[in-house]
């Protein structure tokens, strides 16, 4: 038998297959190159622009600060920090709030409250740095400026108007001019963050004791269109109640509402300079629990940590820990 021959048609078919495969490879390479180019252009177009801040007033007033900062890990090379905090890697300013927490269900501006209470427990304190554990309230008929604000609380190294005296209790109201200090305390006008009047009292609070802070209406219509508002502390470990002082407030301002609890670092004679980094901060830890109004008749359960400095300023070193009836705020303390 003769040698078997492949059909000519089969040879032509093999050439066509090789040609088609080569064409497919060429198209695939072109497609990959085109996809890479489109992806690079899209990434460039959609990458965030350099961060900037444009603050739009609401009702003619800017309600918070906002600053831009650089961050090589962020899209656009930076970001925007809201509130008065400090971007990561920058110095920590005196006057920095490490936590602001609003009690959402103690916010009845229509009716207001004759008193607002919260339990404050200082848990860690070292040295003479200035920390303030406080409750801020607003008056129901405030006019949209500082005349609506009052606060009270515990300070680690308080200023009595002439010198720093260590542990102190303080009660302040904005846009008023007079009050009644307690024995051993002082009543002083203040300025710098608006103006007002403050009553201050040396108060030897202790770490791990629970102090029930109360801001309350002491005397309605005390004369001349004024009412007396007061603040006091009860050491729940000993049962001792101490009034911080009383301040005259126009009766027309109404009652109080809108509790905001905060943990602040402030300037003293020993920490006048800003801190270069969070790890240099003097340790401080405090817990806030059992927020109420009207002498405990209305119990606060719902709250919002609407400003948390640890999110940007002190990651890993400042934190908030929620608990069953409140929360703990910590700075450089385990």
Provide a quick synopsis of the model.
This protein is mainly beta. The protein has 1 helix and 19 strands.
**Mean of all residue-level pLDDT scores:** 77
Shape: globular
CATH architecture: Sandwich
Element-level helix/strand string: HEEEEEEEEEEEEEEEEEEE
Give the assembly state of these chains.
single chain
Going by helix content, strand content and strand pairing, the class is mainly beta
* CATH classification class: Mainly Beta
* Sheet with the most strands, sense and barrel status: 9 strands, antiparallel
Q: Work out the helix count.
A: 1
> Roughly what percent helix?
10-25%
Query: Which consecutive residue ranges, at least 5 long each, have pLDDT under 50?
Result: 1-21, 39-90
Strand content: 35-45%
Radius of gyration: 31 Å
Detailed description of the structure:
By secondary structure, this protein is mostly beta strands. The protein has one domain (about 95-330): Jelly Rolls (Sandwich), CATH 2.60.120.1270. The chain is built from one helix and 19 strands. The strands form three sheets. Strands 4, 8, 11, 12, 13, 15, 16, 18 and 19 form a nine-stranded antiparallel beta sheet that branches. Strands 9-10-7-6-5-14-3-17 form an eight-stranded antiparallel beta sheet, with no helix packed on it. A two-stranded antiparallel sheet has the order 1-2. The protein is globular and about 70 Å long. The model is unreliable at about 1-20 and about 40-90 (pLDDT under 50).
């Amino acid at each position: 038998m003769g040698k078997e021959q492949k059909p000519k048609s089969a040879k032509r078919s093999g050439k066509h297959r090789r040609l088609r495969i080569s064409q497919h490879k060429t198209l695939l390479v072109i497609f990959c190159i085109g996809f890479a180019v489109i992806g690079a252009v899209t990434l460039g177009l959609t990458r965030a622009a350099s961060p900037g801040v444009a603050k739009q007033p609401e009702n003619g007033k800017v309600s918070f600060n906002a600053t831009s900062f650089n961050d090589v890990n962020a899209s656009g090379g930076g970001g925007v920090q809201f509130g008065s905090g400090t971007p990561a890697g920058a110095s920590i300013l005196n006057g920095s709030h490490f936590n602001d927490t609003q009690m959402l269900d103690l916010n009845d501006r229509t009716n207001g409250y004759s008193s607002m209470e919260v339990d404050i427990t200082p848990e860690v304190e070292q040295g003479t740095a200035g920390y303030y554990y406080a409750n801020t309230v607003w008056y129901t008929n405030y006019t949209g400026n500082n005349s609506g604000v009052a606060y009270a609380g515990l300070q680690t190294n308080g200023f009595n108007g002439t010198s720093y005296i260590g542990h102190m209790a303080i009660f302040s109201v904005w846009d008023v001019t007079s009050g009644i200090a307690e024995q051993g305390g002082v009543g002083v006008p203040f300025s710098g963050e608006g103006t007002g009047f403050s009553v201050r009292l040396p108060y030897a609070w202790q770490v791990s004791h629970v102090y029930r802070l109360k801001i309350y209406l002491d005397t309605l219509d005390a004369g001349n269109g004024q009412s007396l508002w007061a603040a006091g502390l009860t050491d729940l470990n000993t049962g001792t109640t101490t009034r911080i002082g009383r301040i005259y407030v126009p009766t027309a301002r109404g009652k109080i509402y809108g509790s905001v609890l905060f943990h602040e670092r402030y300037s003293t004679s020993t920490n006048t300079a800003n801190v270069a980094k969070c790890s240099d901060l003097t340790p401080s830890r405090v817990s806030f629990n059992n927020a109420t109004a009207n002498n405990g008749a209305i119990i606060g359960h719902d709250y919002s940590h609407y400003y948390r400095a640890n999110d940007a300023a002190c990651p890993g070193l400042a934190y908030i820990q929620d608990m069953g009836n409140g929360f703990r705020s910590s700075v450089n303390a385990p």
